[in-house]
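Exercise 7. Given the components listed, write out the predicted structure of the assembled complex. Treat all entries as one system.
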Amino acid sequence: MIIGSLLATMALAPSPALAERAAPHQPATTVGVSAREYDFALYRATVPAGRVTLVLHNFGEDDHDVQVRGPGGYRSATSADIEPEATLRYGVRLRRPGRYLLVCTKPGHLAAGMKATLRVR
Amino acid sequence: MACYDPTLTRRQVLGRGIGLGLTLYASKLLTLDRVLEAAQAQAVPDAPVLVSVFLPGGCDLLGALPPMDQLGKLNDLRRSLAVGDEIPRMPGESRLGVHPALTDGLGGGIAGLFGAGKIGLLPGIDYANPDFSHFHSRHFWERGMVAEAAGPGWMGRWLDRHGSGDNPLQGLSMDSTLSPVLTTAGAPAAAIDDPGDAALSFGGTWGKGADKAAQVWEQLAAVPRAGAGPIAAGRAAALTSQVGRMLSPYASDAKAGTDPLAGPIAYPTGKFAARLRSLAGLIAQPLGIRVATIDAPGDYDTHDDQPTDLDKALRELSQGLSAFQADLEARGVADRVLTFVWSEFGRRPKSNDSVGTDHGTGGIAWVQGTRARGGVLSDVPDLGALGADGNLAVTIDFRRVYASLLEGWMGTDAAEVLPDAATAGRLALVR
Amino acid sequence: MRTRPMNSTVADWTEDHVRRLFWRAGFGATPGEAADFAARGREATLAFVLDGPGTGAPMGDLVGTVPTVKGQPLDPINEWGHDALWWLDRMVRTTRPLVEKMTLFWHDHFATASQDTPLMIRQNWLLRSRGLGDFHHLLDGVTRDPAMQLFLSLADSTKDAPNENYARELMELFTLGGGYTETDVREVSRALTGWRTKRSRGGLPSIHWQAGLHDTGSKRIFGRTGRFGTQDVMRLVTQHPRHAPFLVQQLWDFFVTEPLDPATRAALVRTYRGSGLQLKPVVAAILGHDALYARLDAPDQVKAPVVHVAGLLRTTGTPITIDSYTWLLNQMGQMPFAPPSVAGWDWGPSWLSTNAMRARVTLANTLLAWGSAPLKPPAGAGNPAWSAEQHLDAALAAMGRPWLSGGSRAALLGLAAGFYDGAKPRQDRADMLQRLLRHLLISGPDAQLC
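Answer.
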């Protein structure tokens, strides 16, 4: 995995374990997400169950949004629109382990392939 | 980096907004009083204004204005970008289709303006043996000559010849930096990003301390310096503090809900429209604006996913320019403003494997305004007579258009500005 | 490795020499470094700049306070804008500033933007690890780099429809600058076909070779014919006679403001070719050249925005504790990981439009109000009993003793002398004067030059 080896090589600062110890309650896990026509890319493949903050950046030319769909019929609310070149922080609470799907609800975008998988453990 | 190569000025392929406020490019330091005085003195009420609108990336002629009388040939070349027979036609010009996005906007957008006789189209515009590099081709258009050497832009040379020595607002880029079209050898010019935000402040000072800060800033700026970098540092410091005061009459006040540049026309959202709106407002003020530039947003370099990118770019262009035109008319200044829309080259007739098109020849340009000569002013390239490399024939040279703009619109001898003026020929672009 | 200057006539080696070298090859010198390396001499200083301290990680160690934003460590992959802060911090704290300066050079040279952050950081690490090595090796890495391939449409360029975008920039901007034809562009684009994008479940793209999509036919490039592929193109462009003069000129202009004279150009080209396209010897020759040390009393290179910001933090020992640098760098016209186009940024005096100059004033406002010590002055930083000279000296000391021209010094002393308008100095006015002096030392025209 590219990111994993990079983290090891560069000794990047963030360590979820450290952050958890530092905070009185479990902090949200931040997941970088890019949106463009018609793909999402997640910068973290797996997160612990709990609060997740998606940091979405729109590299594309059209507006996008995001909805998280998961086990047991879980559906998050749909985020606000993200304009081209804009960044949106969007918080969700993913309690159950399993496979979640990020989808764009703009007409035709999901059909064009605009989805990505986030694993919650 | 660009500074290694003194022969070329490189422009951004993608517009990226940086900073706010106004940038002045002056041959010498000007005092505020002198600037305003010069601006007032030069503000001849009827002086013509030329606005350059650049479509960065190389706009696709055949996608923007499909030749409906050659639709079969076009669709043979563009299997992944086929044009349906149902797309709109240019009003009154049945042989020419129009990208649906160009019908978007006030009064039917660009197509509507064409129908009203306010647009003269220049399909097939380019130069002989075109260079397919964005930077080279753009540089030639910016300078008004097919030569790699560095130097002022073609509108900048006009300012050097006919502009004032001390009114930077005479040449205005609606951007954070001056367009290479407007760089001059000596005449001052300016770049405005947001007329409402140009004031300078020194944090942690107030009262008399703030006054002293402003004074010592002027002294630091005026320290004698030698060499391009040091002179640029001193000049930037001096002009930065001056322009805040200079533009203060035009600053909007969100709290009070006032906007001195507000006009009667509602513009679409986005930075391009906001800049056009500011430009229309400033042109209507007695500031002596003669030439202005603005870069259109969007990605015209449609190597891949052309349908999405071109639609998006042309829609924003059509909405913005139709609002701009309506605004100029509503403000009563339209008869002295001509807008020239251009791109650095055209695109290959044959589509590529990425649902896009590569760099080609025979591009697109138009003149727009109440005094523009409407219609199709050059030949639409023949898809049955492509060049050896599969590119469109060039049906009009951009230098012929420049020479015609200088003489037909600005009313000055083209030979003063364009080295090829004698051989370029002329074309009626204005009525 | 060659550290001896090509044209050594400089008799001595002063703190001014050290400051010039450290700014041009890095992000400035602290007062302690200036004194230390002036004493060590020219050869030892150049060797240190080129090779680092000789211990620790080859790409440099980070020393000093780890950066934080709102008390949390940086998350350069996931938090938007933290990628820029992460790199800025490397510039501020690295033991090998030249490595970061070269990474910046290559980021401009191989300008890439609008790609996923993990890919951009991966590319950044490639530029860092190969930036002083073998150019051929670097170019090969960049050509295979996912961020670059996706940015210039080399990914998914196939034999049936080769995309010319990368082929053109490879020759125009990366290796030659000219001397090729449209046919060369088309043939090189054919030779470079065969790379394919694949996406993980999480959507992150990667690049794979797919032989079936590569054009195996014969190509004619620079007058030579063969069944050329990616490796051959790398060899052809780097062996082209225009390549060495082109690259040498770009490196020279990055470090030196004096024009490159033909004799020096020829010598640098010989060094570069003679080493087998090794970058370090040619960089060493430029950093040792007398032209780099011209007009030591009047610095004339305009600091690029990231060099200005990193230099302020580095020379004052100020850690990163706020994320304002992200938008400030954007306003100043240089957002790392987001160059305006494949041609990179316009360097030199063009950094100093008045918009950008305003942003540099805003930077000073921000640092003095929200930054960390020592850039942010504590209450009581000024002393009402100080003379004008003492006030200025205190401000200079706090700001890492930046260069100040004689004229600027006179103006600031005049400000300090007249600041109280003849009234009895009070603590709050002395503090304001100290804030203002510090502000002007980092925002004024002199502060923009190195």
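Discussion: Strands of chain A lie at 29-36, 39-42, 46-47, 50-58, 67-70, 74-75, 87-94, 98-103, 115-120. The two ends of chain A are 18 Å apart (CA to CA).
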